[in-house]
Amino acid sequence: MTQAQKTFSVAPMMDWTDRHCRVFHRQMTRRALLYTEMVTALAIRHGDRERLLGFDSFEQPVALQIGGSDPKLLAEAAKWGEDYGYREINLNVGCPSDRVQTGRFGACLMAEPELVRDCLGAMRDAVRVPVTIKCRIGIDDQDEEEDFTRFVETVMQSGVTTFIVHARKAWLKGLSPKENREVPPLNYGRVYRIKQKHNHLHVVINGGIDTLDACVAHLEHVDGVMLGRAAYNTPWLLSEVDSRIFGDVRGIFDPLDVVERMKPYVSSELAKGVWLQNITRHMLGLFHGMPGGRLWRRVLSEQAPKPGAGIEVLEKAAKEVVDRINRPADVQPARPGASCAA
User: Fold this and answer.
1) In angstroms, what is the C-alpha Rg of the chain?
2) What share of the chain is helix, strand, coil (3-state, %, to 5)?
3) Per-residue b or e along 225-247, where b marks 16 or more CB atoms closer than 10 Å to that residue's CB
4) CA-CA 20 to 30 A from 235: which of 12, 46, 153, 271?
5) 219, 6 contact by CB (below 8 A)
6) β-sheet bridge partners, residue 34
7) Of the listed 95, 119, 135, 215, which one is catalytic?
8) Would you state the pLDDT for residue 99?
9) How confident is the model over 160-202, as pLDDT tens digits?
10) What are phi and psi of 63, to 5 degrees?
11) What angle do CA 36, 37, 38 make, to 5 degrees?
């Protein structure tokens, strides 16, 4: 497999991968494919499209994830996504939440492979950009190798060739969405085998991957890797994606430079009336495991939510990191309220 054929992406995550998060992640990697949060096709038809679909060109390459089960409505939503400039349109067939099931989309659609095939086919007919699917390896008692193979082979009839697979099944009853990300056991082998059986497919693996070493190992078996919580909670790992995964020259070496790069964007968004917390909440993990990381999080967590909080909060948090780095190991900060001896 050549470097160009490898892919790396950050998973679509509800309430997390909004446009502020994507701008932040893009500071650290030029090559990773970034995804929107899932947007329902119905919301795209009737909602504020600019709020739902608008994004900064700096975020590219960006993919739009759509939820729904009506082929006509999904085709319409896909066309809107293409018109807004998204590089890929992805159908969510993996979310297990009750709300999503009630709307008849997400993971419950794995029980209806023919409908998924028809939905994806209609989407492909409506756009020129790639249409892809994100799914699980099974649901509930439909968890045999043959079930997943049958699902993939039915969906393939739509002409879709990119399958992003969360390597856990989903329990639609009895487990919360959070538990569905942790409780069902991972089965990477099942994903590997679908790639082996259908080598022409572009198979991207997702679920439980938390290091770039693990990504490199998976790429021996599949075409791409997708990280979710690891990319969000420890975002500095994204700074090595371009070099480790794609063989490019690394573009950034200091997380403090990320803060500097974010300042113009933060200032611009503040001028539009965006609250600082809406942006900095995505940045809390930037210094995870590094000197000053706890101080960074504390300043942002305590001060960014305050009305009128501005760029000075970001600068103060960064100064805490710098001071901690420069402080000799044997010099401890004074305790609040402590007095110096005369």
Assistant:
1) 22
2) 50, 15, 40
3) bbbbebbbebbbbbbbbbebbbe
4) 271
5) yes
6) 10, 62
7) 95
8) 66
9) 999 999 999 988 877 777 777 777 889 999 999 999 999 999 9
10) -115, 145
11) 110
